[in-house]
Amino acid sequence: xxxxxxxxxASFTTRxxxxxxxxxxxxxxxxxxxxxxxxxxxxxxxxxxxxxxxTQGRGRxxxxxxxxxxxxxxxxxxxxxxxxxxxxxxxxxxxNKILVTHLHADHVGYLNDFPHAVFxxxxxxxxxxxxxxxxxxxxxxxxxxxxSLRRFPTAMLxxxxxxxxDILGDGSILALPLPGHAQGHFGLCFTxxxxxxxxxxxxxxxxxxxxxxxxxxxASLIAHNAENLRESMxxxxxxxxxxxxxMLCHDxxxxxxxxxxxxx
Length: 264
Hints:
By secondary structure, this protein is α/β, with parallel strands linked by helices. Helix content is about 20%, strand content about 25%. It contains 7 helices and 14 strands. It has helices at about 15-20, 50-55, 60-70, 80-85, 140-145, 205-210, 225-240, and strands spanning about 5-15, 25-40, 40-45, 75, 95-100, 120, 145-150, 155, 165, 175, 185-190, 195-200, 245, 260. Strands 1, 2, 3, 4, 5, 6, 7 and 14 form an 8-stranded mixed beta sheet that branches. Strand 8 and strand 9 (about 165) form a beta hairpin.
C-alpha cells in the first residue's frame, strides 16, 4: 500500500475568519508538497511547494512581488522538496513525474529544479495572472513537458464516488478532479484498506469541509468557480463520512504523513 510523505515548504499567517466562515483569531497555515516512492517508477512529487523564487530575486514582476507582500510566506528551505528527496536518498534528477494539482504560485515554487520530470496536470497548459498563475515561476518548457491526466485509464474510486484516473497504472493512486478552487485543480486518492484522499485546496481547513463552512471574505474571491467548489467539498465530505482519510495542503493539524527535517 503506497502512502505519501509531505514536507512543509513554507507557512503564512492570516485571520481565521478569512478562510473559515465564523473563524476567530489568527491561524498559521503550512504549504505542503509530497513525495511518493513507487516500487517501479521511483520518486514522484506531489506539487513543488512554495520556494524562494516567490520571495527573492530582482527580476520578479510587480504582480509577483505584490503577491508575496500580501501572503508574506516564511520559506523553509530545510523542508523543500529537494531536502525531502535527499532525506529519502534521491536527487532532483531522479524525479521523472511531478503531479501538479494546480498552478497557483505556492504549488509550483521548485518546478525549475527538476529538469527531467514531466508535469501531470488536468488539461491545463498555462493560466492567466487573474487565475493566480505566474508564468515566471514555471519552467520555460512547461507546456512541452506537460501530460494530461485524462490520457490515463479510469478506475473506480472507493465508496462508489465515480471514476478517477489511474496515473501509475496499478490502481495505487487515482487522480480525482476537484474543480472550483482553481482551473484544473485535482486531488489524489491513495487506495488501500483505509483510502486516503489528498484533497489539496478543496478547502483551506478540514473544518470547512466537515462543517460545510465556506471561506469568508476575501478568501471567497479566490475560488475559480464557487458552485464547482461546493460540489467538490460535498464529494470530499462524502469520502470522509464513508470512512476515508482526508488531508489538505494548508490545514495545520499534524498528520501521520507529515515529515519534519532533522535538527529543525
